[in-house]
Design goal:
This protein has 949 residues and is mainly α. It is elongated.
């Protein structure tokens, strides 16, 4: 066998039960060992033998190297004596020499030495224990095996001994003598040794290592070799992220890499970036079964020490390990040192840790549940008694059985508070759930449930609602606490399905909303619960008038005035006052800032609104508050729609919907309904009708829409989409129902111009009379309320039914919208103006308006308006203006995201799943991208997109 394949098997041969792949990849980490073995065999063949020591931790391929070396030596005409020492037979006298003799017997082509080998083997059969006979047998065996190494022997000799650290002492003496005498004879000695392994005859081993001509240390595999092993087993090249995850789990140990790759192949596991996230939980059965036995070979206490290190998780000191295991400190120190030499443990600044995460998983999997619970319980108690941080104690308590001791609940609650402060609500919820397993009276249980509800509002709104519901049913005090605390109740009701929200409200305030405190009734109504907006309280006292409670009440009052169109100036002043509160610290602070920003968006203060939203986004991301992050991004999409157009707003709207889905917001709840409706509205405005319909279908048809603005916005968005798809009657029906619900809940028309949308849909099917009636109603309301944006929309529709006054009415609409600063509405009004002027014979003025409409639609990425304006411009004999956006800057946010994913190797199907869009939508985005960038294929994207490589 040529030495070119030496030791590749160390990392590529699967376990016996798995099929062997037809080819073996080259692993460059073994190049130096292959070269050293080749040189040693060349020297032996020339008669100038020597010795080579191969060292390396367990699993680095020492055995495979020696196997291949013996096979290569036989092909070169060597007599190969090849044996592996055994841990079980390390105390058996002359066991290694007997195995070497047996290997000579098996070399059928060496006929000259068969009698000698048989004589040596016979001497060892039934060897008596008396020293005199043993010495005689040993001398005889030395003589027999020594004759194989004599110069006049027929060809060179290879003596290869694997795991020499487990050799018996008599055999070690023979090896020492042979190594000392082989330099001027055709004999090559190759030994493998594992540092840290328990061994007999340590003095002889030390002497043996000193006699070696050369020593080679085996290294762990790097990324290219790990990737080669994975591809060898999985049949496909792994992603870099997946390779890195495998490398992190195994630290490049060849045996662990091979075992992991074989297990992944057995499971049919993928090898892309998404599959990498599942690697830490994969248990490799072969490793889990063998780890205990291998550790016991090192020391009877090694497994106990390793289990303690795994359970302690953080760097473990010998003192802490000794306390947990009950072993003496000197014993633990000795075992730890051996495990570090063996490569099982790694030293850290404050203790030791497991070196291979995969071994950690294997040891944890091999622990019986009762053993794990007991170990974690003892660890938690030790840490508590030593004054460790509550988080460190709680980390073990979650795996221990309930004890009913007071300190347990205290540690879990304190640990949860620490995790929340650190922005880790998932772990905080885990600690609090474990606290509920302790035996608790109703009052303490209710208080703990409220804490869990508050933590869960950040990641799991369904759990938050269930916990709060149970808490207020257990204790009246919990209900009063919830009503006084701003933020918690509001988030739960916004994220819960309407029927559950109604049940919670029923428990809190009874069957009549008017019986509730006015401030509480206002909060419930804003959350879509129980009817129209109640009267504004004279002096809101939700949570007090200072701190988060004062800002919360002011922002809520501002939002209520906006919804009622009850004085925008007052609403704006209230919003500004609420925004002056300190940087958002608590969820209630964030909600106050979001409501204030909502008011500012609708009262012409975009810069102030943007500042508030940026601050809120920083806080929600830092605290990992997913529902509030979703609400923040949804509001920012409204701001971007008002200032930059629908295309610029789409990314935030999509992200808001995806984030809410991740935190289990009820699809029929007010928050999810509102966020989804805003996304559908934007998709409709940008001509992405198929994607918009998919969003609605994914949520399903709700049995009952939530009350308030959320339900009305859903009807508005769905009505506009139906009308755009040609289902005009259904669309108008939804828009009219939207108006009815807005009147029922006391919501001002300025928030959702449903009359204008319904009128535009009716115009498309020739129902001009109804359209005119609705448009004029909208215009009259807008003039009364001083709402220029709504008035401009209404007039742009009414102009089509104004007869001879149509051009003047449309001109007024355009000027109003230009002054108001609504780019999408302005672009549509300009397109309508151009079309109207063209129909009245004013072609030059029509072309001017249509060119401006086309350029504005190109700038803001509103496809529907662009197509309409372009068609009208062509009909009017005009030429399409060039887009003012060039290159990468001309891409919409979604086009750039799709292009970046494509440039980094993602397929269209992967992109569609990642962005939750249809496959056809991805294809359209890429086609538009290629056209804008002047390229022809996805392979060119990485050269023109910054940061895509």
């Amino acid at each position: 066998m040529p030495l070119g394949s030496l030791a590749s098997r160390a990392a590529c041969d699967p376990p016996a039960a798995a099929p062997t792949a037809p080819t073996v990849p080259h692993l460059r980490e073994y190049d130096h060992a292959r070269a050293a073995l080749d040189q040693a065999l060349v020297q032996g063949a020339r008669g100038t033998g020597g010795s080579l020591l191969i060292t390396g931790p367990a699993g680095t391929g020492r055995t495979a190297l020696l196997d291949d070396a013996a096979a290569a030596a036989r092909q070169r005409g060597f007599t190969a004596l090849h044996a592996r020492c055994s841990y079980a037979d390390r105390d058996a006298p002359l066991e290694l020499l007997r195995r070497l003799a047996r290997s000579a017997c098996q070399a059928g082509d060496q006929r000259r030495w068969l009698p000698i080998a048989r004589q040596a083997a016979a001497m060892l059969v039934g060897l008596p224990a008396e020293d005199a006979l043993r010495t005689a047998a040993l001398r005889g065996l030395y003589d027999v095996l020594g004759r194989l190494a004599m110069p006049e022997a027929a060809g060179p000799l290879l003596v290869a001994v694997d795991d020499v650290h487990w050799a018996d002492e008599d055999s070690l003496r023979w090896l020492v003598g042979l190594a000392e005498r082989c330099r001027d004879v055709p004999v090559t000695v190759v030994l493998s040794f594992c540092p840290g392994a328990e061994a007999h005859g340590t003095d002889l081993l030390a002497e043996l290592t000193l006699t070696q001509t050369r020593e080679v240390s085996l290294r762990e595999l790097g990324r290219p070799s790990v990737a080669a092993v994975l591809e060898h087993h999985l049949g496909a090249g792994p992603d870099e992220e997946f390779t890195d995850a495998c490398l992190a789990a195994t630290r490049g140990n060849p045996r662990l890499v091979t075992a992991l790759a074989a297990r992944l192949a057995q499971l049919g596991h993928g090898c892309d970036a998404r599959a990498a996230t599942a690697l830490p939980e994969i248990v490799v059965d072969s490793v889990a079964r063998s780890v205990g036995g291998r550790l016991r070979r090192l020391s009877p206490y090694a497994l106990d020490v390793v289990r303690a290190v795994v359970v302690l998780a953080s760097p473990a000191t010998p003192a802490r390990i000794a306390e947990l295991t009950g072993l003496g400190r000197p014993v633990v120190t000795q075992v730890v040192e051996r495990l570090m030499r063996l490569g099982v443990l790694a030293a850290g600044p404050s203790g030791v840790t497991m070196r291979h995460p995969m071994l950690t998983t294997a040891v944890r999997a091999a622990l019986a549940p009762s053993e794990a619970e007991a170990l974690h319980g003892r660890t938690a108690r030790l840490l508590h008694q030593s004054g460790a941080a509550p988080d460190a104690v709680a980390r073990h308590l979650v795996h221990a059985l309930p004890s009913g001791e007071p300190w347990v609940l205290d540690a879990l609650r304190a640990g949860a508070a620490d995790r929340l402060a650190a922005g880790d609500p998932g772990t905080a919820c885990c600690y609090l759930r474990r606290g509920l397993a302790e035996p608790l009276a109703p009052e303490p249980r209710s208080a703990l449930l409220l804490e869990l509800a508050e933590a869960a509002t950040r990641t799991d709104l369904a759990e938050a609602a269930t916990s709060l519901d149970e808490a207020i049913r257990l204790s009246p005090d919990a209900g009063r606490t919830v009503c006084r605390t701003p933020g918690l109740l509001d988030l739960v009701l916004l994220g819960a399905p309407p029927d559950q929200a109604e049940r919670i409200a029923l428990v809190l305030v009874g069957p009549h909303l008017r019986d509730a405190d006015p401030a509480l009734a206002l909060r419930l109504s804003h959350c879509g619960v129980r009817g129209p907006l109640p009267p504004l309280p004279g002096s809101p006292t939700v949570g007090g008038n200072t701190g988060s409670g004062g800002a919360f009440a002011q922002a809520l009052a501002a939002l209520t005035r906006l919804h009622r169109q009850a004085g925008n100036a007052t609403a704006s002043a209230d919003a500004q006052q609420a925004a002056r509160s300190e940087f958002p610290i608590t969820p209630a602070h964030v909600m106050a800032h979001l409501w204030a920003a909502d008011v500012m968006i609708h009262t012409g203060q975009p810069e102030s609104a943007g500042t508030l939203l940026e601050a809120a986004l920083i806080r929600t991301r830092r605290g990992r508050h997913q529902p509030l992050e979703a609400l923040t991004r949804s509001l920012r999409s409204l701001l971007l729609l008002a200032t930059k157009g629908p295309a610029a707003a789409l990314e935030d709207a999509r992200a808001a919907a995806a984030t809410l889905h991740a935190c289990a917001a009820a699809p029929s709840g007010p928050l999810a309904t509102l966020v989804r409706a805003r996304l559908v509205h934007l998709l409709t405005l940008t001509g992405r009708h198929e994607e918009a319909a998919t969003e609605l279908e994914r949520a399903g048809v709700p049995e009952a829409l939530p009350g308030g603005l959320a339900g009305a916005t859903h009807l508005f968005a769905r009505g506009e989409l139906k009308a755009a798809l040609g289902y005009t009657e259904d669309g108008v029906r939804d828009l009219l129902e939207c108006g009815r619900r807005m009147r029922e809940f006391g919501i001002a028309d300025a928030l959702l111009p449903w009359r204008s949308s319904a009128a535009r849909a009716l115009l498309s099917v020739g129902r001009d009379g109804q359209a005119r009636e609705l448009a004029l109603e909208q215009a009259q309301w807008a003039r009364t309320q001083h709402a220029p944006g709504v008035l401009g929309l209404a007039l742009s529709v009414a102009a089509w039914t104004a007869g001879g006054a149509a051009p003047d009415v449309m001109a007024e609409a355009v000027e109003l919208l230009r002054a108001y600063g609504a780019p999408h509405d302005l672009a549509r009004a300009l397109a309508d103006q151009g079309a109207l002027l063209h129909r009245t014979g004013r072609t030059g003025a029509a072309r001017t308006a249509l060119r401006e409409a086309v350029q504005l639609a190109q700038d803001i990425g509103t496809t529907g308006v662009l197509e309409h304006a372009a068609a009208e411009l062509t009909a009017a004999g005009g030429r399409m203006p060039r887009s003012r956006r060039k290159g990468v800057d001309s891409l919409t946010a979604t086009e750039r995201k799709v292009a970046t994913l494509a440039a980094t190797g993602h397929t269209n199907r992967e992109i569609s799943k990642s962005l939750f869009v249809q496959l056809r939508t991805v294809e359209i985005h890429l086609t538009n991208t290629y056209r804008k960038l002047g390229i022809e294929s996805r392979h060119q994207l990485r050269h023109v997109l910054p940061g895509a490589t």
